[in-house]
Each structure stands twice: as structure tokens, then as C-alpha cells.
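Researcher: I'm preparing a figure for a lab meeting and need a structural model of a single chain. I don't have an experimental structure, so a prediction will have to do for now. The sequence is pasted below. Please return the structure as C-alpha cells so I can convert it later.
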Amino acid sequence: MSIAPASTLALGDRFARELPELAMDWKAEEAPSPTLLALNEPLAAELGLDPDLLRSDDGLRLLVGNLVPDGAHPVAQVYAGHQFGGFSPRLGDGRALLLGELTAPDGTLRDLHLKGSGRTPLARGGDGLAAVGPMLREYVVSEAMHALGIPTTRSLAVVATGRAVRRETVLPGAVLARVASSHLRVGSFQYAAAQGDVELTRRLAGHAIARHHPAAAQAEAPYLAFFESVVAAQASLVAQWMLVGFVHGVMNTDNMTISGETIDYGPCAFLEAFDPATVFSSIDETGRYAYGNQPLVAEWNLARLAEAILPLLHDDQEQAVAIAVEALGTFRPAYSGAWTRGMQAKLGLPEGLADEVVTPLLGDLVELMKSSRVDHTGFFRALGAAARGDVEPARGQVLDLAAFDAWAERWRALGPDGDAMDRVNPVYLARNHLVEEALVAGTDGDLAPLERLLEALSAPYDVRPGLERYAEPAPEDFGHYTTYCGT
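Model: Understood. Here is the structure written out cell by cell.
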């Protein structure tokens, strides 16, 4: 089979053409010796890309940004953002490049974006590079999220560069090639607003509407409808995070997408012992982005988006604020509804139950889980067995047995469907000790643990013989897990 050269790959430059104020022409640094570490062949096929092409020498040069396809227009994106509550008016892709937009066979437009491809003028003193471990983390966790059905950016490949990266120690460098519906962020709008350029904000909103929320264009108030759509998308997304115990770790406004996809898997991790105060990130010293705070932070971030687009909502600022406040007020009921529906599904409950039945049942369960620090993933999976009559695996995780028995009696009286529960409660998760094992081995050149973990995570709801260790909590000597941004 003949393979078309990578230089002929069609990459559009719509973002760069429509929003040049947010795009800085740039080139990736030369990678001395590109070597493929991981290639997402199912995603490549979905994008209409030939895996053999991507594995070729030219394909690897493409994946690190050293071979730019004919007609492509790589740019570093400019954005602002609140980082841990403090506003930075000019951030952007300090170590990343948007190579361009791919049109998939189904007609959808996707960004092809690099991470760790070298310093840009937006690097703010950083070296612009990435180490193998953090890039493999994003590959593993983003693909785990995709398999769980949670909207996310995807990882196409991780390529070792042959360049050393200095962090606490000297580590091998790598570039991640990732795919997203787009990389538009709340911070993109904050940057436009900080310029005092209402027309730029309007063009940015038009670009985002056309790309992600096209129904808003037909609304009586398109920019209001756009904001409402982003609020709804983020309410749904964060509810899904909470239902699987995902902790993003760094929910700055520049890490919240307009599309409603999860982005930037830096110091992320999954809950094991259930505790709303759980923090994994080494830099989150105050617990701002703790697991239980994520819905409130998402709402706060959306308020910053509202501030950025106020001039588009009404010419009179007071009326614009009133409109924004009312629209933002839909976040909490939307989030609560999505979380409640998700919890009902996790408990196998039939539809149509009265709120006065469901609300106390869920509230009491959360308190039981918190007081006993149950294993979040294992406990819900064990409840599926309890629905079929085997109560002990779940009961054995709880300290207050009388309270659990009373709760379980109320729950089982509602007729939970254990098989339905198994379809929404994963048995395999990107557990932190397994991720760390794969990253350490991958950094040392052994990719077998990574490949085995990815295979388990590809079908997280289906029990398969030989994968028992991927369903087990971390061993006691693993200790508290601390994650790092990788910069």
C-alpha cells in the first residue's frame, strides 16, 4: 500500500485566519531523535489518518512539529486566565502549538495541537519542553475519560524527542500530539476583553458559536444563547467528573473549554478513599481545586466568562449584568440535575421516583461514604452485586454497619437494577498507583505496563479474566498520591 507523504496532510488554519489577534506564528523546536512511544490507532482511523504514515520518519517529524504540511499555519494561541484566583492578562501556549485543523471523514473539525514542542514568546520563563512521564499521563487519563464516555480532548501520540529535560532531575523529553474540538477557553474571552476590543470579543464569540454552539446563531439573543450553552455544557461535564471521582487539579479559567471538553491533564488523579477535601496537586496548597470544590469553581469560572462578554449581552452595563446573573443562575440546577440523574443511574434506580425519596437517599449515602472513606470506584461496583443479593462486598467497606443496613434496606426496596449499574459503574479505572507504575516504567523505556493499562481502560465496564489487579485499590504502602504540572 502506498502512503501519502506527511507534507500533504490537509490542515486548515481557520482559527489563525479568523482571529489573528489570538494567534502567534511560530515553529516547534527541532527534536534531535523522534521515537514513537504511543500511537492511538483507533483515534487515527477516526480522523482519517494512516497509522503507517504516522509511524514513518516523516510522520514522527509531523507529530513533533518539525515537518509542517504544505499550506499549514502553526500558531501559539494567546489567552489570559485566572490562575488560583489571580488574574494574568496574557498567558497562552508557552510550550504548545496549534498545527491546524483536521477535517475528519464525518465532517467534524478537530484541532491538531502539540504540547512540549519548545518555547514560544508566551513561555514566561519556562523552557517550553515536556518530560515523558507527564505526556504519558495525559495520554492515559484522557483516553480513560474517553472510554468512560466523558467529553475530553484526545491523545493521538506521544513521541520521545531525544532531548533531555531538566526538572527535579534530568528526564527524557517528549511531545504530546492531542486532538480537540477546539482549544478555545474561558481565558480566550478574558484576553479579548482585557484588550478593550469589543469587536474582537464579538468575532471570537461568533467563531465559538459556529464551531461549538451553532443553534445559538438562530436564537433571538445569540450571545446570551451561547453563554447559556457553555453553562449547560460545563454543568454536565463537571457532574460527570464528580460521578467517577475525577479530580482535575488545576481548574484555572484558561483550563476551561468553551466546547465542554476536559482539557489539560496536569496534576489530575482519581479518588480512591472518598473524601470531598481530596487534593492531589502539589501546587494547590489551599485546596481551592479539591474534589468537592469543583462544581463551585466551575460556576466561578463561568462568572468570569460572563464578565468578558457583558458588552455582547446588552449596551447598558446594568442590564447586561442582570442578564448574565440570570443565565449563570441556571448552572446550579443544571449541575444538580445532572449529578442526581447520574447518581440514580449508579444506584440502578428506576425513573420517576419522587424527590423526597431520592434526595435523602443520596444525601445519606454520601455521608456514609465520607465517614467510612470507602473506595469510590470499588464501592459503587460492589453495590451492583448488592442489588443482586450479595451485600457483603459493599457492606465490608463501611464502618457504621447499622447505618449501612438501614440505608441498604431503603435502597433495595426501590428495586435497583444491578445489571444496569454495572453498565455505568466502571470496574477498571486509571487508578493512581497503576498510572504511576506505567509512567515510571515508560520513562525508563519499558512501555509494557502502559500498554497493559491502556488495554484494561479501553473497556472499563466489562469484567475480563486476568485483569483483577486493575480493579483493586492501591496497596497500603502507596501512601497519599501527589501529582505535578510537569512544567
